[in-house]
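Feature request, filed as a ticket because there's no other form

It would be nice if the structure record came with a short human-readable summary line next to the tokens. Right now we just get the raw output. Example of a typical job, pasted below so the devs can see what we mean:
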Amino acid sequence: MRTITAAFFASLAAAAAASAPASDPDLFWHLASGAWMLDHGRLLDQDVFSFTRTGATYQTGQWLGEVVLAFVYRQASWLGVDVLRAVLVGAAAFFVARATARVQPHIGWAAVPILATILVSRTIWGDRPQLFTLALVPAVFDLLLAVRLERRPRLLWILPPLFVLWGNLHGAFAIGLVLVTVFAIEAVLVRESALRRPLVLALAASVVASALNPAGVRALAAASAYASTSGAYIVEEGPLDVLTGPGVVFAAMLLVALGIALTLGREAIARRIGAPVLWPGLVIAFALLGLAIQRQVTFACVVMTPFLAAGIPAVLGRRPLAPVALPRAMVVAACALFALAVATVAAVAAPRAPDLAAYPADALDALATAHGNLLNEYDWGGYLIFASPSHPVFIDGRGATLFVPGVLDDFEEAVRLRPAYHDVLAKHGIALVLLRPDRPLTVALREDGWRALAERSGRWVLLARP
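Raw output as currently delivered:
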């Protein structure tokens, strides 16, 4: 029954993910990076897409994720990207549901927190290597719950090879290491003799495995930064706004979790959910992470979901439901049926093209015949790298990795028409500007005689120096 429940929620999430068009601005530069590595047969470790940082060395910590994206796109175009997104989102939902079913087999009590977590996770469904982390965090969490609650330490051998893969797919493997750390600390504190040594050894092996990537031990520092950035430049790295949709859901889940802990107490949690020291450690650690960095709020919801699903009926005095064992043939048939349903949705509803409404696609023809250094909108940089490779960009979505603080500060100085904007244009030899028409710089340059090569009213304008 546990697998069927997990497959059911996975199919819902995958179908929803498959029906959305690709639109994430970072997708385009990730595709370009992966294509460059496929074409050149080596890692991309220096900038080849901008003129402001050309030749500068950098590591994105996600080279393999970019290669996978580019390979899928080359084999199956935009439909392939949609299907890959659906598979990874579905995998995330599958492991969240299976982890929840380990402590709450009743699908009715499990459904609300699982669906809430899926809804919050939509904020990070963008087509980029982060999708691999979205799938891997619940997978590691489910494995660790099996080890702790069902006393299956032999499963821990899966973690080191998994972290080798994760360390190359995406730079957020630190979140997985935090999970293993919390479980290891709890085993030491409660003196779980059968699990303490295996978990500590698994943690050490996972840390070493994470460093088996082109960046080596530097990847550990970069991964830690992923979970500790201040948000000074990138909105999604800033603190969570609890008045937004995901913020409201997260806040509600956290308040209910705290209420459950205070109402039940340690002994009741031990009887109904197990590991009474583990759950506070997980909820507190990930709640603080989610509050500090909004793109991590999904993972805070992931660890709270099983606790809520088992804790709410316990508070209400409902008896726990015994797990139901179903014949293997029935489980396989049900999972096949769910997979067929998702495949049907993908075949019928998955978009065959990205949503380019937010990008200056109509400016490409005029840009192709223009010459000179281009100052472009931050959010359009990745698209221009992909769609107009003959024009190196001023800035793009690799901001915190490559352009902070110098180039990004210059960008803000120019587009906001601050006192030194003339110096910035001269410093970078700007001959072309592709910006939103309401930018102060756009207005000023028109008044200074810069001519419009092309424009779309209210959306974008391409200006050339007179």
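Something like this underneath would help us a lot:
The longest strand covers residues 430-435.
The longest helix spans residues 63-101.
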